[in-house]
Amino acid sequence: MPTLLAVLALTLVRLLWLGLNEPNLYADEAQYWIWAQTISGGYYSKPPLIAWTIAAFTALCGNSEGCIRLFSPLAHAATALILAATARHLFDPRVGVWTAILYATLPGVSVSSAIASTDALLLPAWAAGLYALVRLRETPSPVWWAVLGLAVGVGLLAKYTMAGFLLSLALWWLLDRGPKPALTGQGPWLALGLALLVLSPNLVWNAMHGFATLRHVGENTNLARGASFNPLKAAEFLAAQFGVFGPLTFGLLLWILSRRDTWRDPRTRLLALFVVPLGALMLGQSFLARANANWAAPIYAAGTVLVSAWAVARARTLVLRASIALHVAAALLIFAGPPAVAALGHDLPRRFDPWMRQRGYDVLGQAIAREAAPHPGARFLFDQRRDMANLIYYIRPHPFDARMWEPDGVARNSFEQTAPLRPEDRGPFLYVTRRDNPADVLSRFEQADRLARLVVPTHRDAALRYTLWRLEGFRGYRD
Prior knowledge:
- The chain has helices at residues 2-20, 27-35, 49-61, 65-68, 71-90, 93-105, 107-112, 118-138, 142-158, 163-175, 187-208, 212-220, 231-244, 247-257, 260-264, 266-273, 276-288, 299-313, 317-335, 337-343, 361-372, 385-394, 414-418, 439-442; strands at 379-382, 403-404, 429-433, 445-459, 462-474.
- The protein is α/β, with parallel strands linked by helices.
- The chain folds into two domains: 2-19 and 27-328, no CATH class; 358-474.
């Protein structure tokens, strides 16, 4: 009960914040919302679960920013409770309570709870798979094999990083000599069958679209361009984990993983094997090319249980209390800081605003809509994915028929795949661009008239600057 009350209280605070403070959608969030307008088995850069989820929530409460993001705090609350159950079964109820509170207050979880992200959907699936595995150690029941299979399938529908769970699972079966379920019998086949059944819509979609999402994931690693062997990037990625997981917590996790005792106990060894493989892969990826800080997020499911168990077993819960206090302070700074500064009559410089990339697009959308009103037959044209995603959402009515400038015939994002400007599209178009003089675009039209230069201040030292053109008579990308 204390676990449930603590998680519910924190979730209610986050829901209240979403209702009262709605920074503009980030471009990826806007793109997920656009995908949600057309239910599909897959999309260019992500599997479909996030679009399906946003479609369900917006059907219930509308298309506001808060509603689009509503699933995130709920999903993280579910993850915290599942991890608490895992900790209780592996250790004891005290570890369960600390695990839930520690996870729910992690800096990365606080930020992820305020945005629509695939991580928010991946993490409960990862936690459910880990819980099923812990239960299978106790009782090799078909029920837990089924839960394991469903968790893997749902996780892969959320984000392909769930493949890291399968890697850890395989390593645990191969390397661990502790109690574990046998691979004989119907249970493993049940898990495999359910995982494939859940994933089948995305498998079919990929097969019909040249495995576009899988190719994008490969391209996103940047390894095709050649390895860069950049230790500085690896150091930056490692340093970022102190921010994602918390400085005290991440430092303690690294120390726990370095101890022999961790690898001797079957329980902590299980948890460590669901931390180290994916963490090592992401660190290696950051060294060879690049890796975003959140790519390692799933390791903190087992990592939170591991840290909590270590602290409780050694009566070092003061470390957990200090970590949670630090995490809460950081959350207050991120979420309450900007409104507090504004209430005092000050304007934050852009570099100090945690929401700096999510300001001004609502105002910009209104300004563009006013300029577009005298041109009712014109479609919008964009030359950047992020601008197209944000402004399809913030221009009202939403210009779902907008087109993307795509001169080389190679789709590198969802809009270039689904809405490229084609030679037969003659116009007229309302072209929105950040560039003052986009000669390469203007020269391909018979007529180009500049309608407006739009400047929307977002901070005292920054503004959104766009130019709006009316184009007609598209002559194709080349003569």
